[in-house]
Design brief:
Largest sheet: none
Oligomer: single chain
Distance between the termini: 46 Å
Number of strands: 0
Radius of gyration: 20 Å
Number of helices: 3
Order of helices and strands: HHH
């Protein structure tokens, strides 16, 4: 079974890592790991900025579906559904109608 080591470093440019060809010795530990690893040259994100994209990687849900759409405040909260987040049930006069997973407020 393959082993996966996921390294996530914010604001680190690939062109400043030795394993991507940078000449200065700025990343000896990462370079050592990369010697016997699969190193990717392209990266595609599901969301931007970083936090929603990381959450999507680990939850399998786009930010628009997880509720994590930004870095701070409620924009960084994983959205729960139903009464646990204070939504009213259908027919109670609130906007809770259609708030089941995957649906969005009107």
């Amino acid at each position: 079974m393959p082993r996966i080591l996921y390294i996530d470093i914010d604001t680190l440019r690939a062109d400043h890592l030795g394993c991507y060809g940078y000449q200065r010795n700025t990343s000896p530990n990462i370079d050592k790991i990369a010697e016997n690893a699969t190193v990717f040259t392209n990266c595609y994100v599901s969301d931007a900025p970083c936090l929603p994209s990381r959450a999507a990687l680990f939850t399998g849900r786009f930010g628009i579906h997880s509720g994590i759409v930004g870095h701070g405040g409620t924009a960084a909260d994983l959205r729960l559904t139903g009464k646990t987040r204070g939504f009213q049930e259908e027919g109670e006069g609130g906007q809770g109608e259609g708030m089941e997973e995957g649906c969005h407020p009107r």
